[in-house]
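Exercise 7. Given the components listed, write out the predicted structure of the assembled complex. Treat all entries as one system.
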Amino acid sequence: MVRHPLSKTANKYLRKFKKWPHSPYKTSWHHNFGEQQAMQILKQATIEMDSSQQPQRHNLQYPFLLSTLLDSFKGYSCDPTPKAYYFVIKTLTDSFQLHDIPPILDHLEQVEKFETPEFIFVYLIRFYGNVDRVQDAVHLFFRIPRFRCTPTVCSLNLILSLLCRKKECLKMVPQILLKSQHMNIRIEESTFQVLIKALCRIKRVDYAIKILNCMIEDGYGLDSTICSLIISSLCEQKDLTSVEALVVWGEMRKLGFCPSVMEYTNMIRFLVKEGRGMDALDILNQMKEGGIKPDIVCYTMVLSGTVAEGKYEKLDELFDEILIFGLIPDVYTYNVYINGLCKQNNVDEALKIVAYMDELGCKPNVVTYNTLLVALCLVGELSKARGLMKEMGLKGVELNLHTYRIMLDGLVGKGEISEACIFLEEMLEKCFYPRSSTFDNIIFQLCQKGLINEAMELTKKTVAKSFAPGASTWEALLLNSGSELRYSDTIFSGLLSTN
DNA sequence: GTAGGGTTAG
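Answer.
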């Protein structure tokens, strides 16, 4: 930047070489006054333009606002200021007169001599990005030096975040990074942050991790916000496996990353979902070692992970630990523990826990009962299951679709076909449909017993409820219908009319 | 000081 050699207060936009010396009356005060007046005229012109007066083209070569700008400053013998250009550009973007922007930029580049402040480009690039004109944004970014402006990491970060917003623009990122080197822009930690954030947002955690590795290789410190972002994105996606996630986690930890409750929780949830209960347990232990007391939610997730992996000794150990640490198990925790007991065929113990829950003021819910019903039906304890269903009703626990399906499967599984049929009708009344395989099974069993008419009737009833039985039902009916094929004809037409 | 995250079922 060229400064007036004699005065620090000299206006930085003055041309260095003037043809004429300043008039003794033209002081800096006059100058500022002139600039202010010129701006006033420009602003006034904009207001008039807004109030639907057709812009008059003073000079056909230039857009109205540009010629107004030039004329008004000329009228006060001042050079146009960057502020004036910014004002014009902002006015044009606000009113979406995008076609007038290029000539203004051309003029700014070719005629003006001042060092254009970067914020003008930052503004325009952001605007182009917001109106989906990424290509214009990129061109302007590359063009910045031609405006006698040295772009900084601000412009770079901005253009990168715009490009990362869209998948199809991602491929331009390396080119921009390369070019920014030639433009002498020094990449900063913030640049990596921009890239990583953008990549996480578009769910490309794999790329985000690569960038993180580049950062580390370049000697940048590990930023906890970035790590946290990567971990949470990692846990939300499906492309990277839990093993890969654990590698990233391990590397971050090696580099000194101290996860917070949120990261631990995210990791535990992700690992449990991926069926890696023991790894989740490992994270829980890391949490404790890191001085963070896991809460009941973390424990509950890990408990369910141990049940899923069948590590029942760990289940008991952890449940004890919860109590030792003074945490209070809630219905979620008990449900997981009860499920664990049921999986070990220890339904009696599970039933005891349910009674115990009541004593502790923790009400069993529909999940608790469904878990128990599954276990009872599995071992054929249908009467106990029926009793439990009654208990649900008495305790005001509402039966849901799963409750009915579990019971129906229990009845069918035990060959209690006539009770199953009655139960199914009850279900249909409430618009609870059985699993298609269960229905097929019922029809198959009815047909096997020679109860073809009953099978037909049941099918008709279900079809009437807009429930479409599976192929096996039709097959069973057709194979067994013999001379009564006409019945199935009516069923078919019933099905067709309901669809 | 906060919330939210967690359970069953094929």
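Discussion: Residues 261-262, 265-266, 268-269, 272, 295-304, 330-339, 342, 365-374, 401-402, 405-406, 409, 435, 437 of chain A lie near DNA strand B (CB under 10 Å from a C1'). Confidence is low (pLDDT under 50) at residues 1-10, 12-20, 483-499 of chain A.
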